């Protein structure tokens, strides 16, 4: 595999730019088949730069250069040269005005970076490096300029013309064309530039800030989606109010706009004042969106709004600092969602993502620190490590400092750095200064990759009424970082001690700070041996080696006062049972379900007092992708059989209890989006999934499910039936899938759910179904949501993808090779299921490696896919 076309970028090589750009005037002339971009930039030599070179390199890709001039005079050919990824200007003065005209072709832009078209509408995506596909520019986040954008377009095709900032002028032109001029008064890097033009309508509202300013709020969508924007607008207003109340941050422009588009590589983008969203995170109605969809809309709307300060007003010096904005903003949106809904439920959901995806990333070839040291393609580092683990790092600081000092740190951060491009170190410095807490050791969370692993040893002195806990930490080796070279992390550990009655013992301090490789913590005056409730609220992103008995886990499930740890005890108990049964099946022994586990599940099913969402979560078994990572050598077949055995046995032994739960939580009343209502639906639908756990469940349970499908007045209850039925080899499965398709075939987002259901099925016929669906009208290889819903979902289907014949591997490799030429970002993300190939048996290893090598041999392989494949093969 050759590396001649792709070079690695290192954080240690960062240098300030030789020139800065203070102002940029853009003029977009939108045509039927192309777009002419005229850019006028004001350059000044950077006084902080050490270089005095009179040459200046500007980034630019896939551009047709029409004109280039400096200070009003067209440059001769001797004053510039075009290179593969940019243009070099020669003999530049210390300050000058550059004019560049380029032609681009949005209709041909299948990579969806820069300016492209979605459903006939023009839109942009410039993070991380898309602006260089619009014009020649210093495309780096530490170059911040004031933008003025003029857009010209056909008034019929593009009645709406939008860009960043405030609208300052608009008018008519000859030939049925019109224009709009937008001015953004706040300097910003070019990755935050946005343009949208097309045939859109908007819903409108307003928000009055704490200082009395009235903000015009608009959500732009296609006309057919007008009635699905209400929840997004409500979420936006809640976000604005919450940010003022919790962080004292007020919105700064006169207008805040959101645009929903169908073709988008990401979830959403925080462009200053003009957020472009994947329509999945804007559109919602009870008939078409599930509870999780509603929560997703609320969370992503909040996330992008919060970026206005944590990302826009203060941005990244370089892309290695990506978690400076993303980790911090994920923490903020998680806190917002916790305040809007259920804090324990939100915390459990966040940790499930972390354990299932980020821990897997930490243990594989793509393991990297929250602040990476190098990258080949920055697109590959929009990862769960940067986002979700980055948020955990912020949360740990919040835990160590306390809410009051954390807020002081945030205030100081903005006071010091408003309008600047800064680093993760700058953020930590503000926190340390404001709180007077030494965070030097804590900063290792930014630089060391991998998930720390804790071991726990307990010692109980009956006579001395003394209880000791010894905690030790280690962090396994990761690419470029050996275990021996890693230093001890500063780990905050929230905990509690329970007596034999399940009550919390009194403690002066419920937070331990582990700073050494091993430390012993002693508790005096403990009258009986306690049960340790460790890592309450999941106070640090670590793994803990199993040390508690199943009896202790069952005790914590029943008694722990910390809701997260009650759920976690059930999770750990389920994990222990399934992995043990996997081993039993590998040895061709008879599988028997532990009676203690059955009793623990029975207690959950008969619990009428606890939060129903938490009960539903406690009943949900760990997913196979997570369980696989806990095995030394992953055995997909026996793991699947073991998990399926547990579900079937529980369904058979506790059928009456599951039916009672289903019947007791069925509600045909009006749809409500409250924590209580969502909890009821969650519990009801988890119970239903158990009753349909077999390939051929009892007909009475099938009839019950059909009744829920036919009478359901919301997508949550309807899709739950299809989800459970998708694993059943019965005639009703096909009937429901066809019925669902006929009803919703004109709604692209609902069709995404339909594709996911079939790609996620555990039936042996799944791969054949997926191949057929590749040619179905509901699928399009050019739409990222469709690709994620069908091909991506199949790659995440552990048992189907890892078929021992390797057919799933060949299929996914085919799609990656095809997509690499169309949309490298999406192709790159599809490689993830291959990344842990060395964890499987030798037969599967050989099959997966062969497909990785086949991908690597593709001529003209993109840097995005090249980096992922190279890391997988080299590690």
Automatic annotation (TrEMBL):
Residues 551-873 form the Peptidase M1 alanyl aminopeptidase C-terminal domain. One of its GO terms (biological process) is proteolysis. GO terms for molecular function: alanyl aminopeptidase activity; metallopeptidase activity; zinc ion binding. Coiled coil: none annotated. Its EC number is 3.4.11.2. Its cofactor is Zn(2+). The keyword Metal-binding applies. Residues 99-192 form the Aminopeptidase N-like N-terminal domain. It is an enzyme of class 3 (hydrolase). This is Aminopeptidase N.
